Amino acid sequence: MAVVAFILPLPFLRPTPRTDTATWQQVLAAFEGRGIRVLNQHPRCQEPNLDGLGDGPWLPAERIERRLTRQDRLELQALVQPQRRLREAEARAMAQLPAREYLAELDRACTERLPVQAATPAI
């Protein structure tokens, strides 16, 4: 029996880490300032197919495509199932946004998609 081995040039190596700790702290504080509690050790985080929650992408498809790096495109093509590509692409596009722009997109999406709670009248 012969074993043939080959190497696929998969795009796994990134020159810099994707998460900037200072930016994460800024975004975390902004979430909490909006009344959103962020859990780092929630059981749902361990689900193998957790694609996020919601009824579709927050960013328009053309904006998502403009934000993807060459590295992102290669990884998406090699590693992501076609039916999950848009969600993963959007997550990567959102991760590329500066914190201020990310939070503006979050506010816009929440304003457009979440029902506004009626204000309680003061007595």
Short description:
By secondary structure, this protein is mostly helical. 46% of the residues lie in helices and 0% in strands.
Question: What brief labels describe this structure?
Answer:
about 120 residues, mainly alpha, 5 helices, globular
| Proportion of residues in β-strands | under 5%
- Average of the residue pLDDT scores: 76
Return residue spans where pLDDT drops below 50 for at least 5 consecutive residues. Answer: none
Outline = globular
Helix fraction, binned, reads 40-55%
The total beta strand count reads 0
Alpha-carbon distance between the two ends: 84 Å
Question: Given the structure, what is the number of helices?
Answer: 5
Largest sheet: none
The helix/strand order is HHHHH
Structural class: mainly alpha
Radius of gyration: 19 Å
Overview of this structure, please?
It is a single chain. This protein has 5 helices and no strands. It has helices spanning 21-33, 61-67, 70-79, 85-96, 99-113.
Q: Would you spell out the secondary-structure blueprint of this structure?
A:
Layout: H1 21-33, H2 61-67, H3 70-79, H4 85-96, H5 99-113
Helix pairs in contact: 1-5, 2-4, 3-4
